[in-house]
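Narrative of activities, Objective 1.

The group set out to show that a structural description can be obtained from nothing but a protein's sequence at a throughput compatible with the screening campaign. Below is one input-output pair from the validation batch, recorded exactly as produced.
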Amino acid sequence: MLFNGGTRYLREQKTNAWNAWSHYKYQEVNEGVTVEERIPLRDIQRDYASEYRALSHEEKEEFIRDYELHKGERKLAPRVTARSKIQDVVNTAKKIEQLMIGLDSRVRIQGMFCITRSSTDFAIAPRWFFSSRDLEKYLKIAVWQKWSSSKIGAQIEAFGVAGSSITGILATTKMQVTWLKSQIRDKIISLLVDITGDSNIKMSYTKFHELIVERHKVDIQGWPAKLKFVNPSELSDKMAPLQNLFDALTNGACKFIKLSANEVKARQDRLAADVAAGKVAPRKPRKQCKDAGVPRGSQKATTNKENTNDKDTSSDEDSPNDEEGEGDDRELAHLRKRQRRVL
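Output recorded for this entry:
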């Protein structure tokens, strides 16, 4: 393993007919026999070798196919005892470590992993691995001294034991509702960005038709009929409707759709009809600014203009003595600057 950089773990040994036949022959000979009375595999292979040699090529291939299926089921079969579970975790973690060490030696990488239990059936401490000794130290700097492997490992373990569910680990219903509403809000924004291609787009619920439908030519489809189309923070705190909405956004039952120009026009006409019928409040006109119609120049330009006037005024003043006149001009400009600061 030291010479092949851990790649041996990536390649499984190919099943051969001899091993496959030996496995099933051992089960056949020892069926219904106690552990103490079982015949060793080596003795079975010796005594029944002639039976194996008599097999046809097709029969050997059938043994191989059956044994491959058995191995696949054994990989996913749950461990029964606490000891077997711990041993499986340790062995698997070692294999992952060797794979990462081998990958680092071949292509140069940095990485880490943490394995924790998600069941109370056995006890094992969170298992960390860092590809270099300084990586863990760097993380303490990168996350403002808040990194603690032991604390984070314990938190991941608590998350797993709670059922690997955010709502399962949140202490109160209020916390669960708040988190779920935030997930709904984020999902809506994500779907809107995906369909418009605008990463800076902002969702508007009160002006949805104006800012989303008309401007971006998209509409939302599949919003639950029993829920008002409002900002998720304004929805009811009942968990079931919120979970249903989140599930619908996740599985595509509720989604944004693109509209043609005719579809946008049809929605505008329908909205106008609803406004005329009093079903929908009319769109509020934008308030006019108090200084509407008054030209507004930049502050920088105004200041420069004032400075130019100051220079012109001082240069127009007569003085019998050029040096004294220049001194008066400087004092006058200084006083004017002080007056502007006070104002």
